[in-house]
Amino acid sequence: MPAKGKHRRPKSLRFTRSIAVAGTGGAALALPLMGATGAHAATPAAAVAQHTQKTATVTPAAAKAAATTTYAVKAGDCLAKIADEHHVTGGWKKIYSDNRSAIGGDPSLIHPGLKLSLGAKAAAPKAAAPAKPSAAKPSAAKPAAQKAEPVSAPAKPAAADNGSGYTLPVDGAVIGTNYKVAGSMWSSGYHTGTDFVVPTGTTIKAIAAGTVVSAGWGGAYGNQVVIQHADGKYSQYAHMSALSVSAGQTVTEGQQIGLSGATGNVTGPHLHFEVRTTPDYGSDIDPVAYLRSHGVAVG
After folding, report:
1. Residue-wise pLDDT tens digits, 150-178
2. Under CATH, which architecture does the 174-293 domain have?
3. Cβ(281)–Cβ(236) below 8 Å
4. CA distance 65 to 63
5. Exposed, middle or buried: residue 5 (CB in 10 Å: 0-12, 13-18, 19+)?
6. Sequence-separated (6 or more) residues with CB below 8 Å from residue 199
7. pTM for this one?
8. Which of 266, 248, 251 is nearest to 177 (CA)?
9. d(CA 231, CA 82)
10. Is the distance from CB of 275 to CB of 290 less than 8 angstroms?
11. What is the CATH architecture of 68-119?
12. Rg of the chain over CA atoms, in angstroms?
């Protein structure tokens, strides 16, 4: 009997274990199949989520890069031409507004190699203000010491009054570039003033009595003076080597306001002279016609 009892327990134990093993084996067979199916089903969803996340991250940066284009000025370029070729909304005025600190006070004076931002507004142009160039070639960097030192000026006009209350801005000058001469170097498509070719150091005079509204560095214009006259018009004198007046000062017809030079964007010494309806660029009128209308013989 003890032998039979001992014989039955192993049978019973083996039967129980076989059930357990069978059950475990069944679970083991089911679980890998379920796991494999679950993993396979989850893979596309995970890939889509990952792709969506990457797309959401990259798209704004790509859109921002597409919105702003950096353009390097080439020989023969002008802002109007660049605006047309790149379909800039707002035209050359938009480009000038966005890049004014790089271009300077005269949008017509751009030089090859200048980097311009097209599309989005330029946050901080890297180009510095134009430098004092040599007579042969303009410079793109602003001189270290650009403040003009005042020079002594006579209190009375240097030339005799012609009776009209107006006079030439400089004596004995030869006209270089006339008003509204077309050219690709000017963003507006034409020259906004009249150039009087004179050597550096020639006396520059106020064409009529008035009040100085600005006197100092004018970017591409170099050292400049702007005067408001009694008829509401403004005269501008640019590229001077030295200034004799300051903002707020009253001047008389023919009074010395500075000396001619080649500061700003120029290829040689001369006086760039403009007459405007406002003190700002873009409001120019024919300066020679204006002087002649006031009895001044020009040329």
Report:
1. 444 444 333 444 567 999 999 988 888 88
2. Distorted Sandwich (2.70)
3. no
4. 5
5. exposed
6. 260, 269
7. 0.49
8. 266
9. 37
10. yes
11. Roll (3.10)
12. 39
